[in-house]
Design goal:
Length: about 500
C-alpha cells in the first residue's frame, strides 16, 4: 500500500548548527534539483523538530498517475545509487549522501515526524484501489458530462430555433419595407407623371384658345376698319359688329381673369407640392428609424433570451449584462412608442395635405373647364358636324358598345387592343377621314384605360402630346411660362 497523494521521503539531508539550531537545504532548492532530474515534484517539505532541521523531508508528487510514475522513477534513481530505503537503514557510513524512497504503509504507521506528517496529509491506497477510484470518478464524470451536454444541446436547439424565428421575422420586415417603399415610389411617380401630363394638355388647350381669341379680335378690328372706310349705313350690321366686339372684349377679360386665377392656383399648387415632398421625405426617415428600432429591439430580445438560458451558470457578470440589456430594451421600446405616435401624426398630416392638393387640382380643372376650345367653335360653325359630335359622344357613353378584343403574345400574356374592324369605327373613318377617326379612337382608348364609371367622361389634367395624365409640377411650370408670354404680347399691343 502506498501513501496517497503520492509522496517520497528524503533522508540524511546534511545540516549544520547555527545559533544552537540545525539548519539544512531549503525545500525550494531540493525541489529544483529533483525537477532538473525529471521527477517533477509538486513541492518538498523539510521536517523540523525542536532542535531545528531533522535531516528528513517529504517530497509530494501530483495525485494522478503521472505523479505515481515520477515517484517510482524517484525511488529507482536512489536504489540504482544504492541509496534506497533498505540501504539507509543498513548503512552505518552514510556520509553526506541523500537517501530516498516512496512512502508506503510502514512509513505511514511509523512514529515520529515522518508518520505524523503522512497521517495529516495523506492516506493508504493500493494501486488497484486507486484504479477503481479513478474508474468511478471517470464514470461519474462521464455521466455528468453526458447530462450536461444533453442539457446544453437542448438549450442550444432552443436558442437556434429562436434565432431562426428572429431572423425570419427580420427578413419578413425587410421584405415588407422594400415592398412598401417600392409601391410608394411607383404610386408617387405615377401621380406626378399623370398630373404633369394633364396640366400640359390643359396648357396647350389654353394657349390655343388664347390664340383663337386674339385672331378673332384682329378679324373684328379689321372688319370695323373696313366698315368705317366704306361708311356702311346698315345699322343692323353695325350693332351686330359692336355686339360681337363687346363679346370678344368680355371673353378677353374672362381670359385675363382665368390667367390670373390659374397663376395663383399654380403657385399655391407648387408650394403645396414642395411642402408635401418635404413631409414625405420626413415620413420616410421616420419609417426607416422606426423599422431600424424594431430590428434593434428584436435583436436585444434575442440576446436577452440567450442570456436567460445561460443564467444558470451563476456568473455575476452575466446577471449584470442581463440587467443592462433589460434597461436598454425598456428605453428602446419607449422610444419606439414615441416614434409610432410621431409616425401616425405625420400620416394624418400627409393625408390632409393630399386632400388639399386634390382640392386644388379640382379647382384648376373647374377653372379651365370654362375656357372655350377651338373644337367647340368648330362644331358651332358646322351644324352637321355638331350633330355628329353629339352622336359619337352617345356612342362613347354606350356601355354595350365595346370595340376591343383580347390578344395573346408569344409569352402567353394577354392584352386588350382596339378592334380596327369594328363596323362603327370603319364607317367613321370612311365618312370623316383619318384625323377624326384618330381622335375618336384615342379618346375611347383613354376611357377604356382609366376605366371611367359607366363610360362617362370625367375631367382630368391630361398631356395630349404624350398621351398621359399631366403632373401638377408640369402644369405650374407651363402656366407660368404661358402667363409671361401673354403678358409680353399685351405689352407690345
Amino acid at each position: 500500500m502506498f501513501v496517497h497523494p503520492w509522496m517520497g521521503i528524503i533522508a540524511n539531508i546534511p545540516t549544520t548548527v547555527q545559533g544552537g539550531k540545525h539548519v539544512g537545504d531549503s525545500g525550494r532548492k531540493l525541489r529544483e534539483e529533483f525537477t532538473e532530474k525529471g521527477f517533477n515534484p509538486v513541492r518538498v517539505h523539510p521536517l523540523w523538530n525542536r532542535h531545528g532541521h531533522s535531516g528528513f523531508a517529504i517530497v509530494e508528487f501530483s495525485k494522478e498517475w503521472d505523479g505515481f510514475n515520477n515517484a517510482i522513477m524517484f525511488e529507482r534513481s536512489f536504489e540504482a545509487d544504492h541509496c534506497g530505503k533498505k540501504d539507509f537503514y543498513r548503512s552505518r557510513r552514510r556520509r553526506d549522501k541523500l537517501y530516498g524512497w516512496v512512502a508506503r504503509e510502514d512509513d505511514y504507521h511509523s512514529r515520529g515526524l515522518i508518520g505524523d506528517y503522512l497521517h495529516r496529509n495523506g492516506d493508504l491506497k493500493t494501486v488497484s484501489e486507486k484504479e477503481a477510484e479513478d474508474q468511478r470518478k471517470d464514470s461519474k464524470l462521464l455521466t455528468t458530462l453526458a447530462n450536461t451536454l444533453e442539457t446544453k444541446n437542448m438549450h442550444l436547439k432552443e436558442m437556434e430555433n429562436k434565432c431562426n424565428e428572429v431572423s425570419q421575422s427580420i427578413s419578413t420586415l425587410m421584405e415588407q419595407k422594400d415592398e412598401m417603399i417600392k409601391a410608394y415610389n411607383e404610386e408617387t411617380k405615377n401621380m406626378q407623371q399623370n398630373a404633369h401630363d394633364y396640366l400640359k394638355k390643359i396648357s396647350l388647350e389654353h394657349e390655343r384658345t388664347t390664340r383663337h381669341l386674339y385672331d378673332q379680335k384682329r378679324k373684328l378690328e379689321q372688319r370695323e376698319k373696313e366698315l368705317f372706310h366704306r361708311k356702311a349705313q346698315n345699322g343692323a350690321e353695325t350693332r351686330k359688329l359692336k355686339h360681337e366686339k363687346m363679346m370678344n372684349e368680355r371673353a378677353t377679360l374672362e381670359q385675363k381673369k382665368a390667367d390670373e386665377n390659374m397663376l395663383r392656383l399654380a403657385e399655391e399648387q407648387k408650394r403645396e407640392t414642395e411642402k408635401l415632398h418635404r413631409e414625405i421625405i420626413e415620413l420616410e426617415k421616420q419609417l426607416d428609424a422606426k423599422q431600424a428600432l424594431e430590428l434593434e429591439i428584436q435583436r436585444m430580445k434575442g440576446a436577452l433570451q440567450v442570456m436567460q438560458h445561460m443564467e444558470g451558470d451563476g456568473e455575476p457578470e452575466m446577471k449584470t449584462k442581463m440587467e443592462a440589456i433589460e434597461e436598454e430594451l425598456k428605453e428602446k421600446e419607449e422610444e419606439l412608442d414615441d416614434l409610432e405616435e410621431l409616425n401616425q401624426a405625420l400620416i394624418v398630416k400627409e393625408r390632409k395635405t393630399n386632400d388639399e392638393l386634390e382640392g386644388a387640382r379640382k379647382e384648376i380643372i373647374n377653372s379651365l373647364k370654362d375656357v372655350s376650345t377651338p373644337a367647340i367653335h368648330w362644331c358651332r360653325e358646322n351644324k352637321k358636324t355638331a350633330k355628329q359630335c353629339l352622336l359619337w359622344q352617345e356612342y362613347l357613353r354606350d356601355p354595350s358598345w365595346h370595340p376591343f378584343k383580347i390578344v395573346t403574345d408569344k409569352e402567353g400574356n394577354t392584352k386588350e387592343i382596339l378592334d380596327k374592324e369594328d363596323e362603327k369605327l370603319t364607317t367613321l373613318k370612311t365618312e370623316f377621314g383619318d384625323e377624326v377617326y384618330t381622335s375618336v379612337t384615342t379618346a375611347f382608348a383613354q376611357m377604356n384605360e382609366y376605366k371611367t364609371s359607366g363610360s362617362y367622361t370625367a375631367p382630368a389634367l391630361w398631356n395630349f402630346n404624350e398621351g398621359r395624365m399631366a403632373t401638377l409640377a408640369e402644369l405650374v411650370e407651363h402656366l407660368l411660362k404661358q402667363w409671361k408670354q401673354q403678358k409680353r404680347k399685351r405689352c407690345r399691343r
